[in-house]
Amino acid sequence: MNPVPSLLRQGADASYGRSKDLRLVDDIADRLIALDEFDPQALGSLALTNMIQTMYEAGWQPFDLLHIVRRQQTVAVSSLAAAAILHQSDLTDADDRAPQSWVDQLSEICAAYPKAAARVEASPSFLAAQLSASGKSDYIAASDQWIAVLALLGQWQQLPRWPQIGPLPSQWPRKRAPRMDRGVTTGESPNGKVLGRIRGLLAKADATDFEEEAETLTAKAQELMTRYSIDSLLLTEGNVDVISRRLHVDNPHAPAKAQLLHAVGDVNRVKSIWDPEFAVATLVGSPVDVEQTELLFTSLLVQATRALSHSPKAKRRKGAASAAFGKAFLFAYAVRIGERLADVGALALEEATEQSGSLLPMLAAQTAAVEEEFDRLFPNVRAMRGPRLDAEGWHSGQTAADEAELT
User: Fold this and answer.
1) Do 238 and 152 share a structural domain?
2) What pLDDT, in 10s, does the model give residues 5-37?
3) Are 163 and 59 in contact (CB under 8 A)?
4) Are 321 and 382 contained in the same domain?
5) How far, in Å, CA of 260 to CA of 250, rounded?
6) Residues with Cβ < 8 Å from 397, sequence gap 6 or more?
């Protein structure tokens, strides 16, 4: 009887969670190396790809799996995770079959891990190909690889089922249909020009060292975003799809960053929910609103981080006091920026409503559709208690958000 499957199960159980036993993991890695006659690397490769497929059918997507590994594992384990995900995508022809958002995630992984992407081999002995490509074939390299494999299997096998966003791999067609977007958004189209202006404004806001200029540029971008969203709704006569997208938020201060995302989404008619265990937010809204929410959030995160780094009060704090200040600063910044962007968006909405009597019913219908999809995905939502915050950090964050008069 082949002992490899049993050893993989034992090693996975011992590598992660409450029953973690690193001595046992080392021992199992040694035993797997010694079982050359059973080709353990081929079975290990199969275990990884099967685990990834199982997680996909449970609602996870490529960058979700990589994100949770990157948060808790070493660079070596994260690199193996990226390579395994890309290898599995080759085996399943994901580039030709998966939704475009899925393919975009794979491209992002390729860009972040170019060495892992270059080493992907569509063969059962994926682990053997990885080890060979590394240029190391000694005992220590083989042991490190098995420890990484067991860490991935152990972490991934404990993931819960997640809400399904988009079709599962088992529901993909043999060939993806040509992409048919509502509304052309090329650089030569009116829509493309508006999006280009929005991106240009936010890029300038990210680049400037003057907070007043950054906030004025951001306010103008929000005004254009509101108008663009309304124009898109009117052009489709209110027939707007509702999509969902996950956004991965990194430390430090991930909950405060999630609060900023919520504030931006609320202004742009996007509902968001935060999973603190995995540091993942889910956005639900129209394609235009979700895209613009992510765009503005990314820009504001750069601006907020810069404002925090320039704060004289933050520079005086050390250790835990510095962390407490930073958390409070970003929470306050998120709340106040949300209020100010809401004022800008409300003004643009009021002007648009005066020009079109059919806008409000369309917006109400869109809001109802977003609420319905959100409730379908997350039927058991519960509110989180806010954290205790450093008072000085809070006031400094509000001051940073209030400093410029938005025009």
Assistant:
1) no
2) 999 999 999 999 888 999 999 999 999 999 988
3) yes
4) yes
5) 13
6) 308, 328, 329, 330, 331, 332, 333, 336
